[in-house]
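Predict fold of ATP synthase protein I; 132 aa.
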Amino acid sequence: MTKPAKRTQKDKIGIYIKRQSWILFILTIIAWIVDTIWLHSELTIAKSAAIGALLSFITQAVFAFFIFWYTGYRARQHIVSQLYRGQMSKWLLTVFGFALIFITVQPLSAPALFIGFMVMQISHSWMLWHIR
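Predicted 3D structure, encoded as tokens:
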């Protein structure tokens, strides 16, 4: 009987990103249902929540890409520098992403946009807590 292969941190992050994409999909469906049934805002709330959640998902995926560019003990100096680059890229994408969204997307619900973003941020934190 063979032992199952041990999952690496990179494998766990891959699984995490797939789960996050499911959370993004489910959040979008829930926002669409709430908007259609209760709010009747011509999908402005659903669109705004989905865009906020998508922005959060993209920034977290970019951050994960930077962090796991290098692996292994010998790459520890590169990993630390990539951590800083990833964090800076994540923040810049977030700031410019929100600015671009507020400039180009009309009509927009700012509370729904921020709620979608925060729900994804909370789910990111929760999943990372489970990975560790």
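The chain has a mean pLDDT of 83.
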